[in-house]
Structure formats: C-alpha cells, structure tokens
Amino acid sequence: MTTTHGAGEDAAAAGRALAARMGVPFVPRGGHGLAALLSREGAEAALVFGPQRLSLVFYRDGRREEFFFHPGTALLRIKNILAGKPDQMIRAMALRSGDTVLDCTLGLGADALVASFVAGPQGRVVGVEKVAPLAAVVEYGLRHYVEELLLTAAMRRIEVVVADHYDYLLQLPAASFDVVYFDPFFRVPVKGAAQVAPLRAVGERAPLEEETVRAALRVARRRVVLKERRGSAEFARLGFREIYGGRHAHVAYGVMEK
Ligand SMILES: C[S@@+](CC[C@H](N)C(=O)[O-])C[C@H]1O[C@@H](n2cnc3c(N)ncnc32)[C@H](O)[C@@H]1O
What we know:
Helices cover 38% and strands 23% of the residues. It is built from eleven helices and eleven strands. The protein has helices at residues 9-22, 34-41, 72-82, 88-93, 110-119, 132-144, 149-157, 165-171, 197-202, 210-219, 234-238, and strands at 2-3, 45-49, 54-60, 63-67, 100-103, 124-129, 159-162, 177-182, 220-229, 242-244, 251-257. Strand 2 (45-49) and strand 3 (54-60) form a beta hairpin. Helix 3 runs parallel beside helix 5, helix 5 crosses helix 7 and helix 6 (132-144) runs antiparallel to helix 7 (149-157). The longest helix is centred in the first third of the chain and has 14 residues, at 9-22. It binds S-adenosylmethionine.
C-alpha cells in the first residue's frame, strides 16, 4: 500500500492504518513512479490510497490497469428498476424488500449494490470475495462513495467478507439467506466485454464446483442463482434447469429452488 502523488500527512496516516489492518506493508510514495516502486518492492500490484478513493494498480502487458469502486452500471440498473423496467437478476432472485442475499462473488460490487437497493433497509446483503486487495478496494468504496441518499445507504449496508465462498458457506447455518448468488467469470468470456478483462486478470477464475452449489443450496432459504453466458454448459453441469434472461441478452440466470 502507498499513497497517490502529493498526498498529505493525513492520507499517509489513513493509508498506513488501513495497511496495518489488512496486514500489508505500507511504503511511502516518496515521489516515485508506481512502476518503479512496484519493481523495487518486488510487488505485483499496489493499493494506492488517495484523497477520494482506494485503487488497486498493476501493469498487464505493459499497460497500467487501475481498479476502484464506482457504482456506474449499478446506477443505471437501479434507475431502470425505479422506472418500472425489469432487471433480470432481480427477477431470477425473486428479490423483494426485506430479503437477505449472500453474493458469493462480490467482484466490483455492482450486482450486490442492485440487490442491496431492492432488499432495502430491512434486508441484508453480504458479499464474499476471495481476492483480498479487490475486496479492500470495493469495501472502501462502499463505505466512502457518496451518491444520492438511497443509493449511498444501499452501499453502506453491504457487508464485505474476505473468504473463499466454499469455506464461508460451510460455516453458515442452514437456511440463513433467502438467496445465494454466484457470478463467477464466464467459462467463455463475452467478446467486447472490455470492462471485465482487467478484473479477470486479478480475480479468482477457477470454475464453480458442484459441491459449492450443494453447500449454497443448504444455506439458501429460497433459491440459488447462477449468472453465466446465455447457452453456457455450466448451467446443466451444475444442475440449474430454470433459466431467466432476455432473448437477446449475452447473459442468463440459472435458478435452483429449494
Ligand atoms: C465476474 S466477478 C463478479 C462481478 C460482480 N457480480 C459484480 O457485479 O461486480 C467474479 C468475482 O468472484 C470472485 N471469486 C471467484 N471465485 C471465488 C471464490 N471461490 N470465493 C470468493 N470469491 C470468488 C472473483 O475473484 C471475482 O472478483
């Protein structure tokens, strides 16, 4: 962890404290370029603490990639929901206000945010992410990003857990969440989904295991939902029969009811 160029003492102190909580080394920026700092420290990526946000920065094929939390696509989906348009994920989850959702693949938190908005203040959304630096960036954003009131509240309500979802599911009591959700990286990426490419570079790409789906079914009170490419063989392999999704959409949602 380091800070942005020219960050003041306060940012350095906050970055240092966050690094200590996460158990990662803090390295003062000291006027260095990030590529030089990474190679000096022998690090693959840096968490960069700035006045506005926490980013994860790394280099891939010589190109700088930067992740930070932004509610972008979730915002658009929430606007559509407010305008009365159906959201396929919410339909597949049959999600209502007051429901509880375990999002087993938090990623950049977009699906969790839409779910949190719909579940509302009486509901609960817990997001599980295996890659700790990614979880740190998203959790920081969910705690600090400011949007209009209801959206900000929906962000703040999401609880972030750093864990492998299988291990975490095994620890949970039976029937403890209404919906358990998976959005693993698609086995065959959608062409032109450029925004997912850098996430694929840092995220956990192992396929979903059948035993994980079984563990999810125990934890779910109502249903387990899997997002994959439309027509993906993953649905049949993992036992999802009921499929939701627009006829022309790239993605589909498999549903397994209790
Ligand atoms: C396609 S992304 C999810 C995107 C997310 N739905 C969103 O709206 O931003 C998949 C995420 O799941 C995480 N993941 C994959 N396998 C996991 C596991 N076994 N336990 C926890 N997280 C996992 C990956 O690291 C990645 O961040």
